[in-house]
Amino acid sequence: MSKPIETDILIIGAGPTGLFAVFEAGLLKLKCHLIDSLPQPGGQLTEIYPKKPIYDIPGYPTVLAGELVDNLMKQIEPFKPGFTLGERAETLDKLEDGRFQLTTSKGTVHIAPVIAIAGGLGCFEPRKPPIHNIEDFEDRGVEYIIKDPEMYRSKNVVIAGGGDSALDWSIFLADVADKVALVHRREEFRGALDSVEKVKELAEAGKIDLITNAQVTGLTGNGRLNEVEIKHKELGAIKRATDHFIPLFGLSPKLGPIGDWGLNIEKNAIVVDTYDYSTNIPGIYAIGDINTYPGKLKLILCGFHEGTLMVQSAFKHIYPDKKLSFKYTTVTGIDGL
Predict the structure, then answer these.
(1) Do 108 and 1 form a contact (C-beta atoms < 8 A)?
(2) N or C terminus of the chain: which is more exposed, having fewer CB within 10 Å?
(3) Which residues in the chain show pLDDT less than 50?
(4) Are 141 and 225 in contact (CB under 8 A)?
(5) Alpha-carbon dihedral of residues 229, 230, 235, 238, nearest 10 degrees?
(6) What is the CATH number of domain 128-249?
(7) Domain spans in the chain, listed from the N-terminal domain onward
(8) pLDDT at residue number 326
(9) SS3 for 195?
(10) Residues β-bridged to residue 157
């Protein structure tokens, strides 16, 4: 068994709020280690919409989500945080010395006096269509998130959904895949009007098969997907050969194992004290979209503020007899702290 990873603040969630908390902790000479179930830092910004523009980050009239993550990683680089990626926080125990021991889904053990939960909206699970055998073809032709568009090059693809993701990926893959079909149960779409118009233009040009008033109801294949069954409102059952079926119905957030740690939970969010974003368990804090309090706004910049106040309280929790000397970086610079 490998040696436990020890740190000052163990941050659950490597999204923008968790990453910025590393910077604020570093200013107080507190070491941080981050755990995330995703294989790379950035949370939703990296996993779901890296090319999405963000408009409410101070000093940036607009910044791409992926670019913001890159900048945050550069900002915390001087403080050398540790990362445990691709592993979910599972069990939490209190040690005799007052510190917490957290074990991940892969058995990695972490020990810290302070836990900061910055898990965004929690663990994301795809909203799956009600197809009885869909799990048999997951990673064998069924994907819920498009991570590498090149895997669909020269392939036959069926996308299902009526929102921005379904529309945008249909447009993008029209120039990558051999064939693209977009299946939606209604004629009206929920996405941006310009995307809807673009899909219809591509359909008229024969680059996308647009199938409305229909839904995918069956999957067949021998170890790997090779055909979908589409139930059309007027035409009945339609069989269509395909290499990939991509249902883009969004992601459903869940707290996961964190919900069993004895924290006060309200509507799938962790209740905190706005004085320092502490929870009902001393030494455990919650910052960002995963917490709730009167007047809560789920904005990245609010998460930055919460993380800043959290580390001030964390310092006092770790060093109750030590005086905290707050310094402005404009005076000392990073190297002078």
Answers:
(1) no
(2) N
(3) none
(4) yes
(5) -30
(6) 3.50.50.60
(7) 5-124+252-332, 128-249
(8) 65
(9) helix
(10) 180, 244
